[in-house]
Amino acid sequence: MRNIFLLLIAVTVVFASCEKEKTGSHVSNHFFLRNNNADMPVYVEGNVASNIFVIVLHGGPGDEVLVHKHLLNDFTDELEENYAMVYWQQRCAGSSQGNVDRNEVQLSDYVDDLEKLLILLMHQYGQQIEFFLMGHSWGGALGTMFLLEGDNQRDIQGWIEICGAHDGPLALEFSKEKIITTGENQIALGNNINKWEEIVYDAKQADLSTLDGKIEVYLSGFESENLMVDSMISVETGTTKDYISASFFKPFNLFSNIIPAPFSENFYEELNSLSLTDDLSEISIPSLFLYGRYDFLVPDSFGYSAYNEIGTNEKEILILEKSEHWPMKTEPEKCRIAVITFIDKYK
């Protein structure tokens, strides 16, 4: 992949550079990746002189990537001091543009976009740069799909999965189990008995072979997470002030993150049936797993499963004891230290 033909390929699939600012080794660059009818913003922020580029794979599909820079800045600011952070807005998400037919979108389109993004970045910053992937939630699925495609692993120094959902059916099984076990423990302790009894009952009745059953577990997971977070003063999920500020004073539209445009039924079926656990043994690059103890959507038990199944011997897992689905927000320092330590070890 890293050869002279990259420049020719890059010109055919992208158009680049809209804004550039530079202070010492720190840059703030903004350009677009154009591929298969999608124009996707790319923001490169931080220390390009390090030659280490950390590609942020946001959640969703359909979330806003700039949430990672502007709402999770306690986590990302220091990362930008050490490395070049690449905030890529995926197709059909946030401020991405183009003429994409959502009825035709497939998971493979995202993998192809990410492959082209690497080509663009090497075209922009040189063949000598090194890549780390960092995926959150759906971004964990995307990163895993990418690494399992062809010889893509050879271009990546390390893989960081944060509450990643690379196996929808298995994540739902772990989620249902965690909801029921936690709920029964909370009932025994006399905490929110009526509410937990309702949640446990709904979870037990949920048939994961049906769409309604999957939705019920998702909803029960959100309720369980909120109950546990509310009962622990040490767990923070962000304040209303944070989100009001983001909605009106940050360079992105948070409402597109809260209410993303819908995809087709076929796309959601493909997404919900995605199951990559049996393929994790094929991943041989260094890998770091970060999961929240109080994440009921993609539980820590699911993270342990990924850690056990992945093929590399150079692997680490950290369970954030005061976090839910966004440990970068709730425990930014611990996440930041873990990520920096991992990157510096394998760069």
Q: What is the fourth-level CATH superfamily of the largest domain?
A: Alpha/Beta hydrolase fold, catalytic domain
Most strands sheet: 10 strands, mixed
- Under CATH, the topology of the largest domain is which? Rossmann fold
User: Any idea what the radius of gyration is?
Assistant: 20 Å
Mean pLDDT: 87
Name the structural class. Answer: alpha/beta
Low-confidence stretches: 1-12, 19-23
CATH class membership of the largest domain: Alpha Beta
Beta strands, count: 10
Distance between the termini: 19 Å
CATH architecture of the largest domain: 3-Layer(aba) Sandwich
How helix-rich are the residues, as a percent range?
40-55%
| Structural domain tally | 2
Percent of residues in beta strands: 15-25%
Shape: globular
The helix tally amounts to 14
Order of helices and strands: HEEEEHHEEHEHEHHHHHHEHEHH
